[in-house]
């Protein structure tokens, strides 16, 4: 029998289940998503589950189950079942769905820590780190920066200078699967029952890190490409694995684009730790672009705030504002459409 407490099951989730009309059924956590089929870890083992029609067609894409979600399911036999209910999500990492204006994509839920993985073989980009960190903090998840492939002979000075403003905002680890001590430091930072997700671009070594942390091969990896000198993209899906006597790890496919899905653009000043400076602005609704008496612009001009960091903030704020405005309009249209449907149903009932 599987002890679900090692997968993060707790009293709060137990109380939530007992309020459900399906409380007599099995519960479990989604480990892998295969389009419309889900691998669910439960006390009785791993079940292959599908969704009821009401869940499949009654929810938006972002509301459908993702890796890490807790669900209640009806078992058909020892291996198969159907998901009848999702428990409420917490600490869910989203991103803007590629090719859309205001659609979200749920990456994983019930996440405690998010490791932003970059490698020191030319992959490093501090602006990407800031982007990931903003969305992670928005979800109430602790961000951690991992600079992988630290065994390579590279000049670290430019990297240290680039992350100078980040080292007091989140833990930073330099790691290599060829240097066991660096892996032990990461492992020690993940407690039993905690869920940690690994995010970053392709080829930075996320899957290799997960294997090293688990001290066994649980995920497929590829060799270094001879033409580019970079790791080949391996992960094609989000997948949850369990460390022995410790936490839960979620590997994710590498992403080229990580669009922000933030409802409140003003939250960026707090996330990027500008809020103390912003309090000194002349106007409370200062947008920190060209307003007179802007304390953030003054900090940029007197070099107490790095101009590149400020420019990154402006870019992210603009993107977040665009998503927020588009999301608001989309919800407004959906609400109007739902109202029309209700009126049509009522007219039919009156006939």
UniProtKB/TrEMBL annotation:
Annotated GO MF terms: GTP binding; GTPase activity; metal ion binding; rRNA binding
GO BP annotation list: ribosomal small subunit biogenesis
UniProt main location, coarse: cytoplasm
Alphabetic keyword roster: Cytoplasm, GTP-binding, Hydrolase, Metal-binding, Nucleotide-binding, Ribosome biogenesis, RNA-binding, rRNA-binding, Zinc
Cell compartment(s), UniProt: Cytoplasm
Complex and partners: Monomer. Associates with 30S ribosomal subunit, binds 16S rRNA.
Record's protein name: Small ribosomal subunit biogenesis GTPase RsgA
